[in-house]
From TrEMBL:
Reaction catalysed by this enzyme: Hydrolysis of dipeptides, preferentially hydrophobic dipeptides including prolyl amino acids
A Pfam family annotated for this UniProt entry: M20_dimer
Record NCBIfam families: aa-his-dipept
Keywords associated with the record: Cobalt, Coiled coil, Hydrolase, Metal-binding, Metalloprotease, Protease, Zinc
Protein name according to UniProt: Cytosol non-specific dipeptidase
Top EC category: hydrolase
Named cofactor requirement(s): Zn(2+); Co(2+)
Its EC number(s): 3.4.13.18
Matching InterPro entries: Peptidase_M20 (IPR002933), Peptidase_M20_dimer (IPR011650), Peptidase_M20C (IPR001160)
Family from the record: Belongs to the peptidase M20C family.
Length: 484
């Protein structure tokens, strides 16, 4: 694992290795906050933890660069805790194990944390290097970005002094992002009184092996959603075999396409064989429908201990109908950027058990009116099932500024260093830039980063070759920041 410390640029990979040794799943950030404060102390730069849990660092200008505009480098400290089905990894206690294969850094059976650990590592490299030339530099390393952008949302006004924001949370090298989608968390819940199970047998059905993925960056690729595929099977089992739903667990992160779901169905003993046949037919259907996208589909049934309780039939039917009817995936592309998703939703988490049903969705849109439209559509869907619906952690989109001064500077540096033009793009993934701009509206903002693929999955990886030019561009950009 320590071999990644020997990669170039050393400033990034040495610090990224150190981050892999510090558990930092969203919601459990004490260790990484203390790690970053200790790092700043050793590097000799000012640092503090603000009331929102963000870490802010400040490095003074190099002599002669005091009149340059102040830059804030921004990344988030938390990582998505996803792992392979056979992994025993504990994200709250265990370090990330890494390896290098075909020029990419991977993790063993878990998310890598390159999203956004590589951005944090780059910031650490800037803060500790006394040889660099730059104006005043701030660092904003935010808390709990992946679960609701809480650190950015609670960022105190007046805390930052910067004129320019360089967000290091983009995941395609050679692309400068100047706009991103807004989002809103939608939670539908229902409490019900369980009923005694009068069925003779029970079967646990598991769907796993799907690719999953980032619900913003990869929502347009048509990857299977485990909850939406499972409901097709459950609906057929209920309607044709008289099966009854006892529990449902699918997905575990609101911003990750769910790759696994499992249900327990109660039914007559003489229907178990028919259910197993139905499961096999549905597995074949999923494999055929997704044959160019999903390669490791597993859908199987196994007899299990008979549960004591099941859902009341009317509640069961209403919830199944709501899951079936719930919009999932792309709703609309941006008319001006037809290759970029404008509006989408991800039916991320379903938990039905012990008298309570909870559905969790992340809806995204580059337009506030379409975000509201989609949120209302989902609310209506769940209201018809008698569920209580709440919207929370809403954030607006980041409106692009193609005339950005810092964008023009970065484009020129990229052209000089790489001999070609970079791409300017608006992303469907949610970035904290829009929230920070809401508090600091005069900042000039651009986002960029090295190549990271399959974030929010156990297949997450970073291309080593993209990190060297990313670092060179960042260092040169700080040197060429214009005067105030």
């Amino acid at each position: 694992m320590s071999e990644i410390k020997n990669l170039q640029p050393a400033a990034i990979w040495r610090n990224f290795y150190a981050l892999t040794q510090v558990p930092r799943p969203s919601g459990h950030l004490d260790k990484v906050q203390n790690f970053l404060l200790d790092f700043a102390k050793k590097a000799g730069v000012e640092a503090m933890k603000d009331p929102a849990g963000n870490i802010v660092m400040r490095k003074p200008a190099t002599p002669g660069y005091e009149n340059r505009k102040t830059v804030v480098l921004q990344s988030h400290m938390d990582m998505v805790p996803q792992k392979a089905p056979d992994s025993k990894h504990n994200f709250e206690t265990d370090p990330i194990e890494t390896y290098i294969e075909d020029g990419w850094v991977h993790a063993k059976g878990t998310t890598l944390g390159a999203d956004n650990g590589l951005g944090v590592a780059a910031i650490m490299g800037i803060m500790e290097d006394k040889s660099l030339k730059h104006g005043p530099v701030e660092a904003l390393i935010t808390a709990d970005e992946e679960t609701g952008m809480f650190g950015a949302n609670d960022l105190p006004k007046g805390e930052l002094k910067a004129d320019i924001l360089m967000n290091l949370d983009s995941e395609t090298w050679g692309k400068f992002v100047i706009g991103s989608a807004g989002g809103v968390d939608i939670t539908a819940s229902l409490e019900y009184k369980e009923m005694e199970n009068d069925q003779e047998a029970a079967v646990k059905v598991t769907l796993q092996g799907l690719r999953g993925g980032h619900s913003g960056l990869e929502i347009h690729e048509g990857r299977a959603n485990a909850n939406k595929e499972m409901v097709r099977l459950v609906h057929k089992a209920v309607s044709t075999l008289g099966a009854r739903l006892a529990c449902w667990h699918g997905g575990n992160m609101r911003n990750a396409i769910p790759f696994k779901a499992e249900v327990v169905l109660a039914l007559a003993k003489d229907k178990v064989k028919d259910l197993k046949k139905l499961v096999e037919e549905q597995r074949a259907a999923i494999e055929d429908e997704y044959k160019t996208i999903e390669k490791g589909v597993e859908l199987f049934a196994e007899e299990t201990e008979k549960p004591q309780y099941i859902l009341p039939e009317e509640i069961q039917d209403n919830l199944i109908d709501a899951i079936y009817a719930c919009h999932n995936g792309v709703l609309r592309m941006i008319p001006a950027y037809p290759n970029v998703v404008e509006t989408s939703s991800n039916l991320a988490i379903i938990d039905i058990n012990e008298g309570r049903a909870d559905f969790k969705i992340l809806a995204r849109s580059a337009r506030e009116d379409m975000k509201e439209y989609l949120a209302t559509q989902l609310q209506c869907c769940f209201n018809m099932a008698g569920m209580k619906v709440e919207c929370s952690a809403s954030y607006g989109g980041w409106d692009p500024n193609p005339d950005s001064e810092v964008l023009k500077m970065l484009m020129q540096i990229y052209r000089d260093q790489n001999g070609e033009d970079a791409i300017v793009q608006v992303d469907h993934a949610g970035l904290e830039c829009s929230i920070i701009l809401g508090k600091y509206p005069n900042m000039d903002v651009v986002s960029f980063g090295p190549n990271i693929r399959s974030p929010h999955t156990a297949g997450e990886r970073c291309e080593v070759a993209s990190c060297e030019p990313f670092w060179k561009l960042l260092v040169k950009a700080l040197e060429e920041v214009p005067n105030k």
